[in-house]
Amino acid sequence: MTTQNHDSSAALVKMANDIADYFHSEPDRQIAVNGIASHIKRFWEPRMRKKILAYYAERKGEGLNELAHAAIAKLADEQRSAA
Questions:
Q1: Helices (H), 1-83
Q2: Which tens digits make up the pLDDT trace of 32-81?
Q3: Cα separation of 63 and 29, whole Å?
Q4: In b/e form, how buried is each residue of 53-70, taking b as 16+ CB within 10 angstroms?
Q5: Nearest 5 degrees, angle CA 46-CA 49-CA 40?
Q6: DSSP secondary-structure letter at 60?
Q7: pLDDT tier at 26 (50, 70, 90 boundaries)?
């Protein structure tokens, strides 16, 4: 992974973690995970989603907090199911 790819992946990880922090107060974990995944699907452009999913596949979600990791895993599962 080049430095530029690492920097952009790090920014996406931070963004996903920030979204997860917003949903952290949700008492129902599944609602929180679904909310994070929905936010990423609705507001991230396709290139960003593709990059975070590739990062997740390559690095096993390293650096993602627990809720963000679960949401990205959900998106990865949805992508595999659609293929």
A1: 3-23, 29-43, 46-59, 66-82
A2: 999 999 999 999 999 999 999 999 999 999 999 999 999 999 999 999 99
A3: 19
A4: bebbeeeebeebbebbbb
A5: 100
A6: T
A7: very high
